[in-house]
Amino acid sequence: MKALGSHRRHPAAIVVLLLLGLVATGGLYSVLDPRAAQAAVSSATDVTSGRQLFLANCASCHGVNGQGGKVGPSLAGVGAAAVDFQVGTGRMPLAGSGAPQAPQGKEVLFSDQEIANLGAYVATLGAGPSIPDSADTQGDGNVAKGNQLFKTNCAMCHNFAGSGGALSQGKYAPSLSNVTGKHIYEAMVSGPQSMPVFNDQNLSPADKNDIISYLHYLDQSKNPGGLNLGNLGPVSEGMFIWIFGLGLVIGAAVWLGSKAA
Amino acid sequence: MSEQGTEPAGEHLSQPVAAARQGQGQVERQGRVESQGAIPERFTNPGLPPHVPRSADLEENAARRAERQVATLFGISMVATVVFLVAYFAIDPATYQFIPGIGQANLSNVVLGISLAVSLLGIGFGAVHWAKTLMPDTEVSEDRHPMRSSQAARRDAVETITTSGAAAQLGRRPLIKYTLGGALGLVALPLVVQLTGGLGPLPGTELATTFWRKGMRLMRDPEMTPIKLSDVTLGSVFHVMPEGIDLSPHALEEKAKAAVILISLPPAAIQVTKELDWSVDGIVAYSMICTHVGCPVGLYEHRTHQLLCPCHQSTFDVTQDAAVVFGPAHRPLPQLQITVDADGYLIAAAPFQQPVGPTYWERG
User: Fold this and answer.
1) Over chain A (261 residues), what is each successive 10-residue block's mean pLDDT?
2) The domain containing residue B39 runs over which residues?
């Protein structure tokens, strides 16, 4: 021991001490911390981690137990479907306040597993619509029936071809182009923001699949006339013909009446 | 700028013209003719503008160039016609093709359309260009001849009418005159009666009543399946038609009046007693026909409990018995009183208690 003690003022002593301290801290942490050992990702939803995600990201507006607050409504009874839709399309967590409605986010902030966990937790707050069966969101249903249902229930807000439309005071019904079948189903069944609820007794799962089929058909459909000008009907088509068509006609009339050189 | 006695610049008018102009209250100053406010006795005819010859009239080369242009346009038309005929048989009507500027379009439509347009326009533009460049363009005036006939012709005409009238004994036989007048007058009546009678039946009570009767079940539109009370959850919206309307003789006209929207509200949110009495557990049914001009008011915003009409943006607050909160509508939407029957289906407890839709004269 005298030999070790005689080296305690060696310049390398401080480095050795630091190294020892780091190794000890790291080793103790890895042994004592309970969460560190999860290596495999489970496909089953984890309500506990969902609750932690909720507390970290949602509780500030929606309350610690999802009971709602001044800014965010109560989440009791919204179900996993609502969470999958709102978080999966990037609408939640709400990007900024002051807008008349939550816009579709530019990016989705959570992974699929995290969204599933969050949904599982919110589902425990109160019984609500669950994530739909994938058989009902395939979009392999009857397109004509889907068109008929869409025209009666959806077209007044979302436009006959799902191009979106205006509501009062700055709110709007968004465009439905290139939306996954699952999100369409969940929006119908949970009624986000201004949209009313179309539960499974109003529009059966087969009906919802038909509507999804119609919307997906529109996404792929080839318009015989080429450009569909946004499917806005006489607004865009009228502007086109007034500017280009009438312009050509006026030009032809001017040429007809002018004298040759 | 007017200086008396200075030599006017530019062209100087000749003496007789200047004198004539002075007689018309005009004075010549510095080559310009100025009016002094008097109206001349006779306006001189200014004549046609000077004729500007075209290049095809002046040079043979220009004329030949114009001829080639016309021939080219006709030639393009012929080519386009051939393209049309070939494309009609050769292109499968189901093929789609990317066309720059148009996108993915039906190839047959585009090719047939453009070729037919070019073939017709080629003829038209060619003919117009031919007329503008090569056909005569001198100005020609057409004389107007007096239309008055000669005195002899006028005298003969009068004589013929009077002698023929006397020969027909019309003056001597007044009975013929009166009965002729009667027959010719009455013969116009079948025409008038058919025109007015063919306008159709009078509306009667059509404007004031709808298809809804007490006890009719509320059916989902378009499937026409009945709605159970348990199907309607909070925040739901159903588009409703009365049972049996699709089998009625004038189904479309009836549907245009009978459309109803069924909304599920929390009962505590309803602020009008009558609305609550006419509802079932907070589920209310309102006419969907806007009281402004008649568009279907289907846009239900369930956060604000407001129904928005897309046509002129009349907004109705459903918690206040569909009172108008914005927009040009003057009257709230009529409510349909609903209840539940023994099997649990929603039914109408009474028809609409007021006419639906826009105001009309006899509505009162």
Assistant:
1) 72 89 88 56 72 91 88 88 92 78 82 92 90 89 95 94 90 92 94 91 94 93 84 90 96 92 77
2) 9-43
Chain-chain contact of A224 with B230 (C-beta, under 8 angstroms) = no
Using pLDDT thresholds of 50, 70 and 90, give the confidence band for residue B32: confident
Measured at the CA of B320, the angle between CA B319 and CA B321, to 5 degrees, comes to 95
| pLDDT tops 80 at residue B4 | no
Residue B141 lies in a domain: no
- Say which DSSP state B318 is in: G
| A52 domain residue, yes or no | yes
> pLDDT tens, B41-53?
888 888 888 888 8
Please state the ipTM of this predicted complex. Answer: 0.76
* Amino acid at the residue B168: A
> In this structure, what are the phi and psi dihedrals at residue B193, rounded to the nearest 5 degrees?
-65, -40
Residues contacting B161, CB < 8 A, separation 6+: none
Q: Nearest residue of B to residue A259 by CA position?
A: B132
Do B226 and B284 belong to one domain?
yes
Closest partner residue to B296 (CB to CB) among A156, A165, A255 is A156
Q: Does A202 touch chain B (CB under 8 A)?
A: yes
The predicted pLDDT at position B14 comes to: 54
Structural domain includes residue A38? no
Residues B322 and B258 in one domain: yes
Whole-prediction pTM value?
A: 0.75
Q: To the nearest whole angstrom, how far is the Cα of A24 from the nearest Cα of chain B? A: 57
User: B313 lies in a domain?
Assistant: yes
Both A164 and A142 in one domain: the answer is yes
Domain extent at residue A81: 47-123
Residues of B in contact with A81 (CB under 8 A): none
| Burial letters B24-53, b for 16+ CB under 10 A, else e | bebebeeeeeeeeeeeeeeeeeeeeeeeee
On whether any CB of chain B is under 8 Å from the CB of A259, the answer is yes
Question: How many structural domains does chain A have?
Answer: 2
Residues 109-168 (A) with a CB less than 8 A from some CB of B: 148-149, 152-153, 156-157, 165, 167-168
Instruction: Assess whether A204 and A163 both reside in one domain.
Output: yes
Could you tell me if residue B23 is inside a domain?
A: yes
Q: Residue A56 is part of a domain; what is its CATH number? A: 1.10.760.10
Q: Which of A142, A171, A201, A219 has the highest number of chain B CBs within 10 A, making it the mutation to test binding with B?
A: A201
Which residues in chain A have Cβ-Cβ distances shorter than 8 Å to B246? none
In terms of domains, do B246 and B223 share one?
A: yes
Query: Between B60-90 and B107-133, two packed helices, what is the crossing angle to 10 degrees?
Result: 160
For chains A and B, count residue pairs whose Cβ atoms are closer than 8 Å.
100
| A22 lies within 8 A of chain B by CB | no
Give the amino acid at B71.
A
Q: B92-98 — which CB contacts under 8 Å span 24+ positions?
A: B96/A222
Residues B265, B269, B271, CA angle at the centre, nearest 5°?
A: 120
- Give the count of domains, chain B: 3
Task: Find the residue in A nearest to B55 (Cα).
Answer: A261
Omega before A93 within 30 of 0, i.e. cis:
yes
